[in-house]
Amino acid sequence: MALVTTAEVCDANPQLIVSGELRALQPLFQIYGRRQVFSGPVVTLKVFEDNVLIREFLEEKGNGRVLVVDGGGSLRCAILGGNPVVQAQNNGWAGIVVNGCIRDVDEINGCDIGVRALASHPMKANKKGIGEKHVPITIGGTRICDGEWLYADTDGILISRAELSV
């Protein structure tokens, strides 16, 4: 999405918005990481106060994908920290969106990757490995499916059923 903002994408594609093929997440997310603008195909994950599956995904090659984690909106602990984000950066992930909390903010802000989360929290998550991979999730008032495309910048986050030619 080189030099085209999410606002411009919305303005240029009213028919995709009306049809539901292009959706905007509610403005709930804080911006972290050095990459404020990022996009890529979505990989979905649903967990609750547990980060084992998040770590497993980020240990894989990202190939420009975006991990979108429905953490149930929990504000009781962080499900993503600095070490997995460094690993994600090194493995070629474009970004991570977390419907929950993160920690190690200074470390994450030094990484060349895009991260969005509800807030930061100093407490760590459980390590039980419970969750669901590649399932439809709903965060920020928007249903998101594995394989859809995510576009993020400082104006917000868009989800598209297909890659946009912008």
Automatic annotation (TrEMBL):
It comes from the Eukaryota. This is Uncharacterized protein.
